[in-house]
Structure to design on (204 residues):
């Protein structure tokens, strides 16, 4: 098992604004609510973009590669989300506290090899429902943001970074889309750590 890295909640733009003293006051914390029913597809539904291309292209992904229950003592909260790099290092997206997630990752690795993404929801005091799927990780030299959506239809490129139109090109993602899906495709990419991105290509 590799190292744990708890990913910052700020995007690159938010970090730069914070360093410049231009960030807004944080919103008040919401009132505590009961945990939602377990949904292994949480966070993977289509984006509601006005242009329609993302909703049309990014259909609900296929079933997870492994879904199971396991026991993990000492993990606080009701949900955990993390991904692993090809090296085995763990990038934590969602967690309450700083508990060791190795028991969950070790159980996943009885089914899958890194890299993969995990969504886990508490089912009992020490019982967790875990859903895991393989992911593609690509090295991309890009510092403009942390979430990328790229569509190619009829040779025309539509690129968005952190939800906003982007005038440039990202050849690595174009090559990934062409290799996986041919001429018309959509590629979604989310920064995992530095130059390493989780990438998913889908046909148009």
């Amino acid at each position: 098992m590799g190292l744990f890295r708890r990913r910052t909640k700020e995007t690159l733009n938010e970090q730069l604004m914070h360093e410049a003293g231009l960030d807004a006051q944080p919103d008040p914390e919401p009132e505590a609510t009961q945990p939602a029913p377990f949904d292994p597809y949480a966070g993977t539904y289509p984006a509601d973009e006005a242009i329609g291309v993302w909703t049309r292209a990014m259909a609900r992904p296929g079933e997870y590669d492994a879904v199971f229950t396991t026991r993990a003592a000492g993990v606080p909260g009701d949900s955990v989300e993390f991904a692993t790099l090809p090296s085995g290092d763990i990038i934590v997206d969602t967690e309450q506290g700083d508990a060791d997630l190795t028991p969950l990752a070790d159980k996943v690795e009885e089914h899958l090899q890194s890299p993969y993404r995990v969504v886990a929801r508490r089912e009992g005091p020490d019982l967790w429902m875990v859903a895991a799927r393989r992911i593609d990780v690509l090295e991309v030299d890009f510092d403009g943001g942390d979430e990328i959506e790229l569509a190619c239809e009829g040779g025309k490129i539509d690129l968005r970074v952190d939800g906003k139109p982007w005038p440039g090109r990202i050849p690595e993602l174009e090559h990934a889309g062409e290799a996986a899906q041919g001429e018309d495709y959509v590629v979604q990419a989310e920064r995992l750590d530095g130059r390493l991105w989780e990438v998913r290509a889908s046909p148009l």
Observations:
- Confidence is low (pLDDT under 50) at residues 32-38, 43-61.
- The chain has two domains: 1-33+64-134, 137-203.
- Residues 70 and 107 are 8 Å apart (CA to CA).
- Residues 171-181 form the longest helix (11 residues).
